[in-house]
Amino acid sequence: MDKNRRAFLVSLAQNVAIAATGGFLWSAYVEEAKAAPLILRPPGARKEQDFMSLCIKCGLCVEACPYDTLMLAKPGDNKPLGTPYYIPRNIPCYMCDDIPCVPPCPTGALDIKSVTKEQDGKQVFDITMMRMGVAIVDIKDCIAYWGIQCDACYRACPLLDKAIYMEMRRNERTGKHAKLLPVVDPDYCTGCGLCEHACVTEIAAIKVLPRDVALGKVGNHYVKGWEKSDEARLKGSSGIRTTVTPRSEKSAVESLNEGLNLE
Amino acid sequence: MSKIWNKYRFLILRRFTQIALLVLYIGGNYWGWKILQGNLSSSKLFDTIPLADPYAVLQIFSTGAIVAMDALIGAVIIAVFYALLGGRAFCSYVCPVNMVTDLANYLRRKWNLDKFEKKWWASRNIRYWVMGLSFILSFILGTAVFELVSPISMTHRGIIFGMGFGWAAIVTIFLFDLFILKNGWCGHICPLGGFYSLIGRYNLFRVKHIQPNCTLCMKCKEVCPEKEVLYMIGKKSQMVDMGECTLCGRCVEVCDDDALHFGIRDFVKKGE
Ligand code: SF4
Ligand code: SF4
Ligand code: SF4
Ligand code: SF4
Fold first, then answer.
1. Taking a C-beta distance cutoff of 8 angstroms, is the pair A43, A132 a contact?
2. Which pLDDT score is estimated for B271?
3. Which of A93, B27, B151, B261 could form an SS bridge with A192, CB 3.0 to 4.6 Å?
4. For residue A192, how far is its CA from the centre of ligand 3 (angstroms)?
5. Ligand 4 mean position to A181 CA, how many Å?
């Protein structure tokens, strides 16, 4: 009896040890596989973390895309297995008016609401609301910044003059020409990648990156005094607080001149 | 001819359903057929009825996320189907890995590997541990963890959407089953098999054993991928009542003495 008990306990301990080792390897692998910060997701995708928990890897979004833009990550792609993504330099998203890829998603990993707006009391799709990523210009390798005329990305953009516009600047080298420089406005850019697809340089000088990788954040301690709505944030604030130290008891001029004999 | 049919009718049916499903899914992806779109994780039948893998949906739930209605309804449809009718038939009639493990098993018998090899014992309950672990890890890591490693989804997606290095997973399972552990993947480790064993425990269709006909040739136990469910062979007339039975029907086909056949569950257990 005692012997049986012992054997049982030993085998229990073995099972637990095996399970723990297996679980450890398994979670290490999953953590590794999840870490792909440069992946671009389909239109309407939720924030990466929520997307990763919701997506069931069915590929219905992939099948719905008429341009074969979307792919499911295969072993060897170095992306979380089975999740949809696209590579704009190969095939960009053409921003279909009817967004066929979003509604089939069975789990809500692609959120219809994020690409729908209300118009005349009806819910309609609005492709300009997509936020798959944001285009970033590499100003050293963009030939327009060299002074050579190129507006391939500008003209490829479905939101031309909004998401991307050409800024004029004096060409200091020749002294008599203008440079026309592509500039992206992240407020409008959807991340479709038509610009990256169109770019004429060997490796695209304009690239779509995930928004949370590419964009910064100001924080809320700056107030735009020239914007009424922004300045309204100051209402009810307790005013400017200054730190008082023994040094700041006197005025600045007084403390600076202290001890000086000016006679 | 009719002899072949008699000996292999369920095997033929199983290969037919497995391959037909694959063809329908491939057609859905490449040629836009609207019969079955998606894959085994979640799909759309006739462009209207949602279907979803209930085990995958449960993992998503354990991450704390709430799935949309389509996946939820799809998961309930599949779960109810297997609970009432299918039992664990997913494993033998649908799962693409089954063809790989069956091949390994066939070669094992052909090459007599069982006789040579030193017995390496592993509990068939590992699958339930793996299943429990998958829910815990999904909760901690915030993603459906089995879905990220599942060779079933990998194989199935691979055939429909392109394989990549997915063949490596298939080869691994094949070699594991062939040389390391008999019925290693499906019979010991696969948590999806465990899941269907649990929900299909009380389904309607069952294999039944008629003890007086049995000549104790043990052919059934030799082919059965879960032979522990055949504990009653030659001992008493009874239905195969364990959820682990995949309802593959191999035992029914190989029995030359008419001691096994399919039937409806006995609701009253007699003789006990
Ligand atoms: S919007 Fe159109 S082109 Fe872009 S991913 Fe969706 S279906 Fe494909
Ligand atoms: S349709 Fe939704 S759940 Fe399916 S692969 Fe695409 S994002 Fe994932
Ligand atoms: S990714 Fe490029 S083409 Fe697409 S909206 Fe942004 S700037 Fe325009
Ligand atoms: S296409 Fe490329 S090189 Fe030309 S202006 Fe646009 S970013 Fe620059």
1. yes
2. 44
3. A93
4. 6
5. 9
Interface subset of B 37-76, CB within 8 angstroms of A:
37-39, 41-44, 50, 52-53, 56-57, 60, 63-68, 70-71, 74
**What is the CB-side half-sphere exposure of residue B50 using CA atoms within 13 A?**
22
Q: Give me the mean pLDDT over the B61-81 stretch.
A: 86
pLDDT digits (tens, 9 = 90+) for A34-68: 777 789 999 999 988 889 889 999 999 998 899 99
| B168 neighbors B161 (Cβ within 8 angstroms) | no
Phi and psi (nearest 5°) for B6?
-65, -40
Contact A36, A81 (CB under 8 A): no
How many residues are listed for chain B in this entry? 272
State how far the Cα of B231 lies from the Cα of A91, in Å rounded to an integer: 58
User: Is the model's pLDDT at B270 over the cut of 70?
Assistant: no
Q: How far is CA B131 from CA A94, B58, B126, in A?
A: 41, 11, 9
> pLDDT (tens digit, 9 = 90+) per residue, B143-156?
888 888 888 888 88
Confirm or reject: Cβ of A84 under 6 Å from ligand 2: yes
Q: Quote ipTM for the complex.
A: 0.84
Contact A134, A185 (CB under 8 A): no
In angstroms, the separation between the Cα of residue B52 and the nearest Cα of chain A is: 9
